[in-house]
Automatic annotation (TrEMBL), chains A, B:
Keywords attached to this entry: Hydrolase, Metal-binding, Pyrimidine biosynthesis, Zinc
Protein's recorded name: dihydroorotase
Family matches, as PROSITE patterns: DIHYDROOROTASE_2
Cellular component terms (Gene Ontology): cytoplasm
HAMAP family per UniProt: PyrC_classII
GO biological process annotation, one example: 'de novo' UMP biosynthetic process
Boundaries of every Amidohydrolase-related domain copy: 78-174
GO MF annotation: an example: dihydroorotase activity
CDD domains per record: DHOase
Enzyme Commission number(s) of this protein: 3.5.2.3
Pathway: Pyrimidine metabolism; UMP biosynthesis via de novo pathway; (S)-dihydroorotate from bicarbonate: step 3/3
Amino acid sequence: MATSITILPAADFHVHLRQDALMRLVTPTVRQGGASIAYVMPNLTPPITTTEMAMNYKKELQAIEPNVEFMMTLYLTADLTVEEVKKAAAAGVSGVKVYPAGVTTNSSAGVSTYEPFYPIFAAMEEVNMVLNLHGEVPPSPTNSVLTAEHDFLPTLIDLAKRFPKLRIVLEHCTTKDAIETVKNCGPNVAGSITAHHLHITIDSWADNPFCYCKPVAKTPEDRAALIEAAVSGDPRFFLGSDSAPHPREKKSGAARIAAGVFTQSRLLSYAAEIFDKQGKMDKFEDFVSNFGRKFYQVEGLGVGTEKVKLTKKPIKVESEVWDGELVVVPFMATEELQWDIEWVKA
Amino acid sequence: MATSITILPAADFHVHLRQDALMRLVTPTVRQGGASIAYVMPNLTPPITTTEMAMNYKKELQAIEPNVEFMMTLYLTADLTVEEVKKAAAAGVSGVKVYPAGVTTNSSAGVSTYEPFYPIFAAMEEVNMVLNLHGEVPPSPTNSVLTAEHDFLPTLIDLAKRFPKLRIVLEHCTTKDAIETVKNCGPNVAGSITAHHLHITIDSWADNPFCYCKPVAKTPEDRAALIEAAVSGDPRFFLGSDSAPHPREKKSGAARIAAGVFTQSRLLSYAAEIFDKQGKMDKFEDFVSNFGRKFYQVEGLGVGTEKVKLTKKPIKVESEVWDGELVVVPFMATEELQWDIEWVKA
């Protein structure tokens, strides 16, 4: 087996870079984790709902880390207009993110029914923007965090058929059903997969706040389906870390545990661990670097003068990432991983 | 609808009274919650494995609370002998508790296969002791906290058939399958149900450490089956609170969340809430007081000169139960419940 591989910098098609102090802490970790593209989620307070907000946010991020390409998104609310979609596309905003109401961090402005947004989706199709779906139905007396993704899949199928030229990503797939559904949709649909969902199951987060996220990690069978899809070489599945930092005190010691796993700073090491165990390091670059760029039609983005070299050499995940002000606990803190990364000249 | 009912004191057929400071804090809450019988779990450090240990523990508990009947159990380990079982029965120990290895608090001494214990079970049958099963299979790469109880049920069925005169309790049923399995077993099998599993589902504990216990609360459908069994008037189902206190710092802010929900201090109020909502307060006394006593053949125990009166009158659950040294956070802390209790003359 190879003990090192050199790949195009990763493209992380689902990141949370937050705002203020937390933004300043985690934005530099995009490169640290091995990525040159960060596809930025808009669930700030207040949510990023206009082109102007997105562009201002992008400038803030670029000021912190000029060597990462930040791809921006809008948060879908009832206030989003067709005009704003066109304006956003013209300004270079890449996608629109849909949060069902109340399912995860800062999703209270989210949607509960999709039909009112058909004109928006049609406009996005026209201007070639991507629709990013948090694929869970809102909480109800009869569903649960276990079934919320499963119950959303008919909506995905329906939207994919109604808007056959609209590129749609089912974000952070967590179930075998989700993988199968993406496979059965047309070429306009892809699924992003996080690094941590390749590692964990419900047992991991049951007693560990730092493994709790939405959608929750599910059964060993579901995890096996995610791993299989990730290493399969199927271009419809690619990396989107959903790295979702929270200050430590919101994860542990809080009355309610904030949803989100922070993987940004060691992203490629987490992912390589799985590919290596599967004997599929030959599929690694496609999953983390190529397939996402291809789906998003940004194949030349963030692939300049540098590459990322992964070497099989044990590293220990930091117990915390901090800047003297805030502490964020990374996934698998203090545990050992087998692949280290470094940036090298292309 | 009645706004008050007066019942025989409850019999709580599954309690964790711990040891040392925690024991001193929670033992008085048995009566506070409305129970005059506490069926005491043996998972201390070290586990209660001999008659002498059980009797000493009982004395400690009686010294703290002379007005509760403490029924004692032994922890099944490979060291338990047929002679010890007979000695225990003669001394008044009521049952033997089986913990599968590694599934919950202080279960590292637990069992992973049942066949070696057949002689013990046969001896228990002979001396009329009760077998209390924590009905979960140990963790494995293919199961999860969701399926651990389901996967255990064939063992229950098998044991019930092999030892048809051995009374067996499937403790803290959490699934529809468990309820169905108990119903399909012979009259030697019963199922205990906690108060909190009548309230919560997986969504409740996903982000709330104080709702996390083993077996974990499962789906809305499972909860509905538990409620139906509890209010049904079927004598095979009765109250066993599995009230499992931990100091607050082991539940929130710990690297791993300790499993256990503390319900002892407001036990009947939690349970009455559910029966009332179902319009089944007429079945309440049977579930909390009568059916358990009948199965355990202790119908005259703890039913002396007092009764418990429940009155429909809003109360607020304490934010914490403490003694100046330890803090335990009760289930539904700071929330409102509709039924208050008081002890009255019979």
